[in-house]
Description:
Elements: H1 2-25, H2 28-32, E1 35-42, E2 49-50, H3 51-64, E3 69-80, E4 83-93, E5 99-112, E6 115-125
Parallel strand pairs: 1-6
Antiparallel strand pairs: 1-2, 3-4, 4-5, 5-6
Amino acid sequence: MEATSIDIRNEIRHANDKFERNFAKGDATGMASLYTEDGVLLPTGSDMIKGKNGIRDFWQGAMDMGVKEAKLETVELEQCENTAIEMGKYTLSGEGGQAIDQGKYIVIWKQENGQWKLQKDIWNSSVGAN
């Protein structure tokens, strides 16, 4: 049981590393490829965004607004067969590493074609919270 826990942590970290690298390269298409075919974003202050084209367009918009880097830190991870639930913290940075936003997120991961992919992705800012 412990080996599975370590394996899933490593696989999710690897996927999050790809997310961070794609973001840093400005590769919104690469970011969208990390989501399942029926993936959904649930961003703050916006309606649900469904499907890879919508997800790509959302991340491209964030990059176009000056977000240059995303850092993800897993706080908690739970696996139930081919589903995993990750809770974590994020930091978004702009040009020169200037902090733009930080907050927390929940991702529901699903295995698709043998790879862990983001299926449901929700986050909200902690900026301004007391």
